[in-house]
């Protein structure tokens, strides 16, 4: 059996996110994002390079939730796909690409946050008996799954 996977992108929000609604009233989130770049040196050390930038978009209710939760500087991890497109400007064909995120969350390795879980009264069967809200603090060691 093959594990279903999607392309992912981790980076940081560079420009203030925008939320717009198209002709069909579909929500669209758009932000410019940066992706850190590193080069491994022959001695085993790493040199930080200039970041690479691209546009990231989301649609529908995911766009509205992302707009409410993300700000400039936030570190994120998103899954989705790259959309390549063309348009004409002054008689010249311009090729661009954007990352279309289907899912997005704050990068847990770089972000402090709290988790709010539904109470048992609102969503039966999902509560495990732990506190409905738990603060997650970053640690100095990474934990793998």
Automatic annotation (TrEMBL):
PROSITE patterns, per this entry? SSB (PS50935)
What does UniProt list as this organism's lineage? Bacteria, Bacillati, Actinomycetota, Actinomycetes, Propionibacteriales
Chain residue ranges for the region called Disordered: 110-145
User: What molecular functions are annotated in GO for this chain?
Assistant: DNA binding
- What name has this protein been given in UniProt? Single-stranded DNA-binding protein
Which ranges of the sequence are coiled-coil? none
Q: Which organism is it from?
A: Nocardioides massiliensis
Bias (Polar residues) occurs at 136-145
Q: Which keywords annotate this record?
A: DNA-binding
